[in-house]
Write a structure and sequence with these properties.
alpha/beta
Length: about 230
C-alpha cells in the first residue's frame, strides 16, 4: 500500500485531499497540525512514501518546519507543500529545505493526484519498487552516481541528495557538456504532465550547488547557460 501523510489544519481541505488520494490508491494518514504530523511519522518512520504538508499550520511546527524535520531524518521521502498564491517566499524556502514540489491553492483533484503520483514514482524507483533496470554507476570526473543504491559521492566524500536532486544529477551525468533548458530538466525530472512553474528547477539547482560546488556563488560544475538553463562540466 502506498502510504501518505497528509497534514492540513483546515478540515474541509484535508478531507478533500484525503478522499481524492484514497480514490487514487493511496493509504492516507491525517494530521491536523505539524506537531501531530511529526508524532505520526515517528511511529512509522520507514512506512511513509510521501508527505503532503500545508505551509500554514498552528503549533510549534508549521509546514516548513515539518518539511525540514522530515528531510533531516529521511532523504528519500517525497514531500509536497500546499501553499496559497501569496506565499511565494515560503515556497522557495520549502524547496530549499528539501521539498520536492508544491501545489498552489486552489487546486483540482487531478492536479493534486498527478503531482503526488510523480513524486511517488521517484520514491518507488529509489526503493526498488519499480521495474526499471539500471546500470550500476555513472562517473564524471571525481563524482560518482550509483544508480543501484542511489548514492552520490565526490571522491571519498558522500553527498546526501533528495530524490529530485538525484534525478537532476543523473540527467546531467547522462549529458555532460550539453546545455539543458529548464523545460528539458522539468520534463525529465518532474514528468511531461507537470503543470508547475519552471523556477522550481532554479531552486533545486541552487540547492545542488551548495552541496556540489566548492564555491556555490562561482560554480565550476553546474554552469548557468544564460537565457536557456544549465550545463554540467567536469
Amino acid at each position: 500500500m502506498k502510504k501518505i501523510l497528509v497534514a492540513e489544519d483546515e478540515q474541509n481541505i484535508r478531507e478533500f485531499v484525503v478522499i481524492n488520494l484514497e480514490r487514487a490508491g493511496y493509504f492516507a494518514v491525517e494530521a491536523e497540525t505539524g506537531d501531530q504530523a511529526l508524532e505520526l511519522y515517528a511511529q512509522d518512520p520507514e512506512g511513509f512514501d510521501v508527505a503532503v504538508l500545508d505551509i500554514m499550520m498552528p503549533g510549534l511546527h508549521d509546514g516548513l518546519a515539518v518539511c525540514k524535520e522530515l528531510r533531516r531524518h529521511n532523504s528519500s521521502i517525497g514531500i509536497i507543500l500546499l501553499s496559497a498564491k501569496t506565499q511565494e517566499m515560503d515556497k522557495v524556502s520549502g524547496l530549499m529545505m528539501g521539498a520536492d514540489d508544491y501545489v498552489t491553492k486552489p487546486f483540482s483533484p487531478s492536479e493534486l493526484v498527478a503531482r503526488v503520483d510523480a513524486v511517488y514514482r521517484r520514491v518507488a524507483l529509489a526503493a526498488g519498487k519499480g521495474d526499471t533496470a539500471m546500470r550500476d554507476e555513472l562517473i564524471s570526473g571525481d563524482f560518482v552516481l550509483n544508480l543501484r543504491n542511489r548514492s552520490f559521492r565526490k571522491g571519498d566524500r558522500p553527498i546526501d541528495l533528495t530524490q529530485v536532486e538525484f534525478q537532476i544529477m543523473e540527467y546531467f551525468f547522462s549529458r555532460p557538456g550539453v546545455a539543458l533548458s529548464r523545460g528539458d530538466i522539468l520534463k525529465h525530472v518532474w514528468g511531461p504532465g507537470y503543470v508547475g512553474e519552471e523556477k522550481i528547477v532554479d531552486v533545486n539547482i541552487r540547492r545542488l550547488r551548495m552541496k556540489v560546488e566548492e564555491e556555490p556563488s562561482s560554480p565550476r560544475h553546474i554552469v548557468t547557460v544564460w537565457g536557456l538553463g544549465y550545463r554540467w562540466d567536469v
